[in-house]
Design a protein that fits this description.
The chain has about 240 residues and is an all-alpha fold. Helices cover about 60% and strands about 0% of the residues.
């Protein structure tokens, strides 16, 4: 299928959803979503998000439509990589909760937390927000999501270490939340893969992160891998 054909198919999926929404009948909306393939559903959900963002008075309506569709017929894996900033996660959070899709992965084995924590354009990641969900929503499956390893054997927090960790000091509330997430990930005694520490150190070297024991960045990494901070300071 050519790119033009793909775009036409996705445009048709969106048009069918719009017609269903205008009918104001939930059954028609769910049916318009159900008949689509993964890409068609992803296009429809993207439309809901963009419309909700551009029309604040209809935000809750489109958020609810997305939640109803996903709860009834699943989260398309193609949308997971796009859940990489606060606005998108906030919009789709009711859907993720209603469908218990926190641990769902895409073709790279990434959950939405992998995408969120690896996003270099959002620094720091919203650790406090995720911790709040753990505390107040009692989402055990969200804790399990912290333990999911992608195809490169990396957890979401390890993706943060490798792709977006820098020397900028974290605000105190975010630092506290990050340590709480580390504790939540490791609370079931699942061992860390200390071999991954070499990847993290290589990434820090590439970004010219100062390797000394006074660096907050190294303290975080040492705490995660449960090693002496001097071990993190040593590149080899």
């Amino acid at each position: 299928m050519t790119q033009a054909s793909k775009n036409q198919t996705q445009d048709q999926a969106i048009a069918e959803l719009i017609l269903a929404i205008r009918s104001k009948e939930l059954s028609k909306i769910l049916s318009a979503y159900q008949v689509q393939d993964d890409k068609g559903r992803a296009a429809q959900l993207k439309f809901c998000y963009e419309t909700g963002e551009s029309q604040p008075n209809r935000y809750a309506d489109y958020q609810n439509i997305a939640a109803q569709c996903i709860a009834a017929h699943g989260l398309p894996s193609g949308i997971i990589a796009g859940l990489n900033n606060n606005d998108r996660v906030n919009f789709f959070m009711p859907a993720l909760q209603a469908s218990d899709s926190f641990t769902q992965t895409n073709h790279q084995g990434n959950t939405f937390l992998h995408a969120l924590f690896a996003n270099t354009e959002q620094s720091p990641p919203p650790f406090n927000f995720i911790r709040s969900l753990l505390l107040f929503e009692r989402n055990e499956s969200l804790a399990n999501t912290l333990r999911v390893r992608n195809q490169n054997k990396l957890t979401p927090l390890e993706c943060y270490f490798i792709y977006s960790l820098d020397e900028q000091l974290l605000p105190e509330h975010e630092l506290t939340a990050l340590f709480a997430l580390i504790e939540a990930e490791q609370s079931d005694n699942t061992p860390v893969l200390k071999n991954n520490l070499a990847q993290v150190k290589a990434a820090m070297k590439n970004r010219n992160i100062t390797l000394n024991a006074q660096n907050q960045t190294l303290l975080i990494v040492a705490s995660y891998y449960q090693v002496d901070i001097n071990q993190v300071c040593q590149l080899h």
